[in-house]
Each structure stands twice: as structure tokens, then as C-alpha cells.
Amino acid sequence: LKASMKLDKDFRIAEVDERIYGSFIEHLGRAVYGGIYEPGHPAADEHGFRQDVRAMINEIGVPIVRYPGGNFVSGYNWEDGVGPISGRPTKLELAWRVLEPNLFGTNEFLAWTKQVKAQAMMAVNLGTRGIDDARNLVEYCNHPGGSYWSNLRIAHGYPEAYGIKTWCLGNEMDGPWQIGAKTSDEYGRLANETAKSMKFVDPTIELVVCGSSFRSMPTYAEWEATVLEHTYDNVDYLSLHTYYGNADNDTPNYLAKSLDMTAFIQEIIAVCDYIKAKKRSKKTMMLSFDEWNVWFHTLESDKKMEPWQFAPPQLEDVYTLEDALMVGTMLITLLKHADRVKIACLAQLVNVIAPIMTQTGGPAWRQTIFYPYMHASVYGRGTVLHAFIDTPKYDTKDYTDVPYLDTVAVHQEEKDELTIFAVNKSLDSSIVVSCDLRSFEGYRVVEHIVLENKDVKAVNRMNHSNRVSPHSDGDAAIDDDMLIGTLPRLSWNVIRLR
Ligand code: AHR
Question: Where does the record place the Alpha-L-arabinofuranosidase C-terminal domain (predicted)?
Fold first, then answer.
């Protein structure tokens, strides 16, 4: 196959907000216990934070981490997780039907984010709780001192206010599975009043209001419109969530699902702008894609789990090469919408539908999806460019005109670097891409990284942790001011130029 593209440094979409490379740690399965936190593990420091896991998170350079849920937050009393550990209660955790001992809570999380050099994105419980607990938590975290909740933080041993900037107003409140699910009017009213009170405590914070849990929710779009009618003036971002999978083992159709994600983002922008028009508002609502990933491998097996265990393995999807390609196309889709998507969280970070896996008491390793996520975060900072792309296309069960070549380019002006991310979705053919680089005179290829494997279902496991890992033997090169490169069949590519 052959494809061509044109890039020009003046054709800008937007500056990438680094928070687009965020992730998520929920109190779920072994994300916290046995994941990031495991006192007594040989790699744990004096706080119990696993340093082998920290090192992998630092390789990615995760800029922001959402916490503590997810569905978990809708039944969480944050007060259970602060103060002396010996006094913390063990509770039934209803979202995931496990035991929560509260050994790790807000202060431990914030100490951990400092260690991994990430910002915190904190969610408040709008399922079983509301305005009061949310404003108290902002006071506990962000107020310097001299008030009841800020003094309590100081008494707990944390004299400095955390200054957490980004907060989520609940989680997936439209979902019948959610503890304390609400109608759009109920949620919109509550979210708006909670937003006001949280901002009364700290006017510098930014708030994310819940959109639909999935694009296929029955109340989709109407939910967003109603919620924004209530909250538009007091919130800063609307959330989107999506998970894709290949349950029917149809790879071309699976990899085409980035078109669904594209439509999802475009529709949500339309709804936001409709409310903006209705309100004659000067403010443009930005998007927080705060849960996105592949999730399907464990959906059935997890249903058989015995309830009320402590940190059982849950949602431990083992990712294949094709899942990594799917994650690559999702990253490309997010980048193409960098003008409106300002925050995105790969859900999640460790053990639970995650790029990093651990064995409790044992080693940590990188799943296949680690690589596109790491490459995008490391090399994808700068300005996203409009790429004019001419690619062959294919049709599938659910989609028509699916481009074989999915690609986006990011220009880092200060470093004089250009990075092209590209996925070849073809099962049987490589794509020879030629790229007209116009304004990038003198640029040369520094590296052409490729993630590929003969077996599209190849995975990394504890004892075979490098089966799917990238190499730098791609052939992209400059020939007469044209970039020419071969993208092997079913591959993720990072072409770095300087
Ligand atoms: O990320 C796993 C779960 O998926 C989250 O708890 C929930 O918000 C979503 O449905």
C-alpha cells in the first residue's frame, strides 16, 4: 500500500496540554494495594511505595493522575482514609464488592504523586454524598491553615496545603451501576451547587463535570445538554469515557473503532457549543477524556469473582499487540483534537486495565500498551499540526472508509523536533508513506521506532516481559526533502526528526 501526507509548521491545530497524557489510579483490584503501594515489598521505600513501579511511571512521564475513582468514589468517605492508619475503618466497598481497609488514602496518594512527579486530579463523591463533604475535602487539601479541616490536615502531619488544581464532580453519574446514580437534572443541580461551594473555598480550582459514561448510553447527548444547562458557568471541563474491545475477534473492525472515538469527541463538542450558543456565553467548554483504554479481556471472568476479598485481581487485562495498536490510534485521535481535549486519563495505570503490571511480592513489567502511551507522552509535546493525508481505506462490519494509515504530527518548536506517530491497520500489507515536509527544511530522521510482532495476539507476561517491545530499525529517511518510510503491517510507528 502507498500513502502520502503533507506537513507544514504553520498549519497548527493547537498546543498539546501535557495533561492529555494523564492516567488513573482507582481503589480497585490491585491498582493501589500490590500495585503502587506494597509495604514490605523488596522494592518498596519507607512509605510502602514500590520503586520498580515508580521507575516505569517516570519512564512514561505521567503528568496527572485521577484518584480515587471511578465507581469507587461514589461510595467513598474520604475521612476514612486520613489520620492514623491504626484508626482507619475496614469497609465493604460496594462498587467492586471487596473489602477496603483504608490503609492508603488522600495524604498517601498525594505523597505518592509528589514522588512520581504528577499532579493530582481528585474526584469527590456525588453518589452517596454531596456539597458538604466536597467542600470539606477542598478545605482539607487546599486551605493553608487556621480552619477546622485545614488544621486537621496539619495535625495529621501535612503542614503544607497541596493546592490541588483539578477536581472531578463525581463519576459516571448517569450509569445505573453507579452508587447513587442520578437523572441529568438531579445531577446537574447537585454538581452546580457543589461546584459553587468548592470554588467558594478555593477559587483557583478547575472542575470537571460528568458527561455520559459511554457514547451508547440511552441518555447520551441529552444528558450532556441538561448537565451543562445547569453547570456551564461554574465548571471548566466536560468528561468523556470510552473503552473498546475485540470480543468478536475481528481485527479490522476493532482497529476501526477510532472512528467511533472521533465521532464521540465531535458530537460532544457540538453539544458544548450548542449550550454555549444558548447561553450566549463567551466561554468555550473544554473536554476531559478522563477514562479511555481497551477493556474487554476480563469482562466475563471478573463476574465470577468471590465478593469481599481484599485487593483481589480485577480487570487484569493482558494486552496483545493489536490492543497496543488500538491504544495508538486512540492517542492519535486525542492529539488530533488537542484544541478541545485538554485532559485525558489512560484508565488505568497499574494492574487494573493498565500499561504496568506487577506480581504482588514479585516483579513489575510493561504491557504492550505501555509503549504507544510512553512514546506519545515523551515525544508528543508541542504543537499538533494538521496533516493532509491521502491514504487507502477499507470497509468493515460497522465502519466504511476506514483509513489504513492513522497518523498525527507534533512539532516541538523550541527543540526543533518533529515527531510523526502512525499506525498501519492493514493485516497483510506494509504502507510506504511519503511525506512532503515543506517548511521543515534541513530536518533529518533521528529515529524510526516500530512496535510490531508476527503474532497480532502476542502479549508480555511476567516471564516473557519483552515479547512485544519496540525496535528502532524502521527505514524512514529523507530523500530530496521528502520523508519516505515503510510502516510494516499492523504496526505502531514513531518517526522522530530534527
Ligand atoms: O476504569 C474502570 C471503571 O470504568 C471505572 O471505575 C468507571 O468509572 C468506569 O466504568
Answer: 290-491
The grid coordinates of residue 282 equal 463567551
Residue 389 C-alpha cell reads as 493525508
Catalytic site residue from 172, 224, 322, 452: 172
Q: What is the pLDDT of residue 481?
A: 81
ipTM of the complex: 0.99
Specify the pTM.
Answer: 0.97
Distance 251 CA to ligand 1 centre (A): 24
Q: Is 172 a catalytic residue?
A: yes
Helical packing angle, 106-116 and 51-60, nearest 10°: 60
Q: How far apart are CA 412 and CA 263, in angstroms?
A: 28
User: Under a CB-based contact definition with an 8 Å cutoff, are residues 180 and 194 in contact?
Assistant: no
- Which of these, 487, 403, 483, 407, lies nearest to 446 by C-alpha position? 483
Query: Ligand 1, from 168, 171, 215, 239: best to mutate by most atoms within 8 Å of Cβ?
Result: 171
**Ligand 1 pocket member 69 (CB < 6 A):** yes
List 209's β-bridge partners, or say none. 169, 238
Given pLDDT bands bounded at 50, 70 and 90, which one contains residue 130? very high
